[in-house]
Design brief:
This protein is α+β, with helices and mostly antiparallel strands. It is built from 24 helices and 28 strands. The strands form six sheets. The protein has a six-stranded mixed β-sheet, sandwiched between helices. Strand 26 (about 670-680), helix 24 and strand 27 form a beta-alpha-beta unit. Helix 2 packs parallel to helix 3 (about 55-70), helix 3 (about 55-70) runs parallel beside helix 4 (about 85-95) and helix 22 (about 600-620) runs antiparallel to helix 23. It is rod-shaped.
Length: about 725
């Protein structure tokens, strides 16, 4: 017996081939419709065609229709226990039987035995019909010499040996219904010798009731001359066995055309009838089951097809998908179920799940866990057809069906939630990892959260500032109005950015660059305030250093020429308002070079520092002392009331500078020569005054040093 196994699922097809080969069947494998049709047309033997779930529903239906029109072909359908509509459509198209997945060996073997019996009976009937027709045609041939009945009997006697070998019952009867001829098959049927049949009617061979039915059929042939094709059921009187057979009865005619008897050819169909009854009962059961399933179809569609969640059915052993609903196809981006049903979860998942576990290993672990507990829920990451990540929460349950246990999986879409969680996790990592201090405050400006950088910068731990106000950071460097202006700007513009001096937990001042922003909800309402704080203390210190370098002498700390010029411009503006004079004094140290040359620059620098201090203590707070370079200094004497006041200041300074300098235990002596120019009487601008003061200083040098001279265009005055 040949079996064609057609299944696009290679694993399922291999399993069927393995089972059927061990039972001695000749196997032909086919993976698509074209291959199946070619195999059917080339075969000259009875064929059992097994159609697997790997084929699409249209392909299954088309093959069932094609096979239905071919002789000696029996179609066995492998059916999903859930997909009722597809199974029903294939059965209506011509499938002889179906078996639900997953099947076991014993059930498959029984279905194949039934298929063999049906094919055998179909072949036997075809042969019997052919032989019966040939015999009847020979019996009804006419002869110009003898009567029809005589010639037919003569032909039957001549071919008696042949008729005894055929597998059908051949007999003749006279007008009284008595047997005038019977072949060997008839004797075997009644389990008696020929002499117990000839010249006896059916009452001696069948029960009275059954004999009466035969007499009625015979009467239609003998008395009405009809040819009768009928199915008869008889109970053999001798054994009590019920037999079924198909019978053709024709009248035997005499020379004048009158009916002289009948010729009967019967085929035993008892086994076929029993098989048909079995098959009929099976189909009746199938109809009942189908009706029940159809009654439940609406409920099925609600829980399986119309749910918002994806649903899988998986083979509990191989973990391959048995069935899925449309939601699964939409979730994963596949067009048809075939795209899914040829795969397992590991085939449409990344190699590793989010925790680092291999998908194949983790799925086996979940399988073992659900078998142990009956149900398990876990998160799973799939890959869509376009290789995009898809997160779902899987509830896996063991379900017992009439054909065995399967895994029932409900897949809830949590992709949006997982994306949100990942964004929140990323935000948390950023919040905790950034070097900028971050403060999250409530609408009432109480602190809700801080990041580690805030603790590192300000010294406060999280529990020390939660529910506290931002006021804990305020320093005395800013007024209350300063902070009020900040929040007014935030309320108006939605944010504020600027520099703030904050106070740390230890009381230290910290220069910060702050950005305060509103966080709004969908309605535009403020739900939080977010402050980012950057420590710029080092930057401010560096800026101060740069300002010092730009405006102050790095050795003595006195203002340099640039700042001295700026102070002069400010003093000029004040002088114009107050109508008072200004004085610029240029100072050059006497005999400083020998100290530098003989004792080194280190000692020389220390002497210059001490000179700067002595000059500074000799002037007023509103006056400015500047180092111009080397051993040269300048004074800006602010608005003084009289020339005498200016002279007193200069005399005091010269006396102070002439005192010995004790540096590292060694005494050093030096003096200074000074020159003074007055504003606005001597000159109106800074450079002119500086030149005039310099000229007056050189006049002091010429007069013997340690003196102060006022600028005079013709002859400077000495004091």
């Amino acid at each position: 017996m040949q079996i064609i196994i057609a299944d696009a699922d290679k694993q399922s097809q291999a399993k069927l081939v393995e089972h059927t080969k061990q039972w001695g069947y000749e196997i032909i494998e086919a993976s698509d419709q074209q291959a199946v049709l070619a195999a059917l047309q080339q075969s000259h033997k009875p064929i059992i065609l097994i159609l697997g779930c790997g084929l699409s529903v249209p392909t299954q239906v088309n093959l069932c229709r094609q096979a239905k029109n071919m002789a000696e072909t029996y179609v066995l359908l492998l059916s999903s226990p859930i997909d009722i509509s597809s199974t029903s459509e294939a059965m209506l198209a011509g499938a002889n039987d179906y078996i639900s997945l997953p099947f076991d060996d014993s059930e498959l073997r029984v279905r194949l035995d039934v298929a063999e019996r049906v094919l055998h009976l179909q072949k036997e009937k075809a042969v019997t019909d052919l032989v019966s027709q040939e015999r009847l045609d020979e019996a009804c041939e006419t002869d110009p010499i003898e009567s029809t009945s005589s010639r037919l009997l003569k032909q039957l006697m001549l071919r008696e040996a042949t008729l005894d070998e055929v597998g059908v019952y051949v007999y003749t009867k006279d007008m009284q219904g008595r047997y005038t001829y019977a072949n060997q098959k008839v004797c075997e049927f009644f389990n008696c010798s020929l002499d117990k049949v000839i010249n006896h009617d059916d009452s001696a061979l069948f029960s009275i009731q059954q004999a009466s039915d035969v007499f009625k059929n015979d009467a239609l042939v003998l008395h009405q001359g009809k040819t009768l094709e009928t199915e008869e059921r008889n109970v053999i009187a001798k054994t009590g066995e019920t037999r079924y057979y198909e019978t053709v009865k024709k009248p035997l005619l005499g020379l004048s055309g009158e009916v002289t008897g009948l010729l009967g050819v019967s085929t035993d169909i008892t086994q076929r009838k029993k098989s048909e009854i079995t098959i009929k009962n099976s189909f009746q059961k199938l109809a009942i089951q189908t009706k029940k399933l159809n009654e439940k179809k609406e409920l099925y569609e609600v829980v399986f097809e119309k749910t918002e969640n994806g649903i899988f059915l998986l083979n509990i052993d191989s973990l391959q998908f048995i069935d899925c609903n449309q939601q699964v196809l939409q979730q994963l981006g596949y067009a048809t179920k075939i795209d899914i049903l040829t795969k397992a979860p590991k085939d449409i998942s990344p190699a590793q799940q989010a925790g680092g576990r291999k998908s194949a290993e983790l799925m086996q672990e979940m399988r073992a866990l659900v078998i142990e507990k009956g149900m398990v829920t876990f998160e799973w990451e799939y890959l869509t057809k376009t290789n995009q990540r898809f997160w779902c929460e899987v509830s896996l349950t063991v379900v017992t069906t009439p054909t065995g246990k399967v895994l029932y999986a409900i897949c809830r879409d949590i992709n949006a939630r997982k994306m949100t969680e990942e964004r929140l996790l990323l935000s948390t990592k950023v919040f905790d990892s950034v070097h900028e201090a971050i403060v999250i405050a409530a609408p009432d400006k109480t602190i809700l959260d801080i990041n580690p950088s805030f603790t590192e910068l300000m010294g406060y731990q999280r529990d020390e500032v939660i529910d506290a106000g931002r006021g804990i950071l305020r320093s005395e460097r800013h007024t209350e109005a300063f902070y009020e202006d900040i929040w007014k700007t935030v309320d108006t513009d939605g944010f504020w950015r600027g520099e703030v001096w904050n106070k740390t937990k230890g009381g230290e001042l910290c220069a910060c660059l702050e950005t305060i922003s509103e966080v709004l909800n969908d309605k535009g309402e403020v739900v939080n305030y977010l402050a980012m704080i950057i420590d710029i203390t080092d930057s401010k210190m560096q800026q101060k250093k740069l300002e010092l370098l730009a405006h102050y002498d790095p050795l003595t700390g006195l203002p340099n020429r640039a700042l001295f010029t700026d102070r002069f411009n400010q003093a000029v503006a004040h002088s114009k308002r107050s109508k008072r004079s200004l004085a610029i004094c240029f100072i050059d140290l006497d005999s400083f070079k020998p100290i530098n040359d003989n004792f080194g620059h280190d000692i020389g620098d220390k002497v210059l520092i001490e000179v700067a201090k002595r000059i500074a203590v000799c002037v007023r707070e509103e006056d400015t002392v500047s180092r111009q370079g080397g051993d040269e200094f300048a004074l800006l004497l602010g608005s003084f009331e009289s020339l005498d006041q200016c002279e007193q200041i200069m005399e005091r300074m010269l006396k102070t500078l002439a005192a010995p300098y004790k540096i590292d235990g060694q005494a050093y002596c030096l003096t200074a020569s000074c020159g003074v120019a007055l504003y606005p009487s001597d000159h109106a601008d800074f450079d002119g005054l500086m030149r005039q003061a310099d000229q007056a200083m050189y006049a002091s040098k010429r007069k013997g040093k340690n003196q102060c001279s006022f600028f005079a265009p013709n002859s400077p005055t000495s004091h």
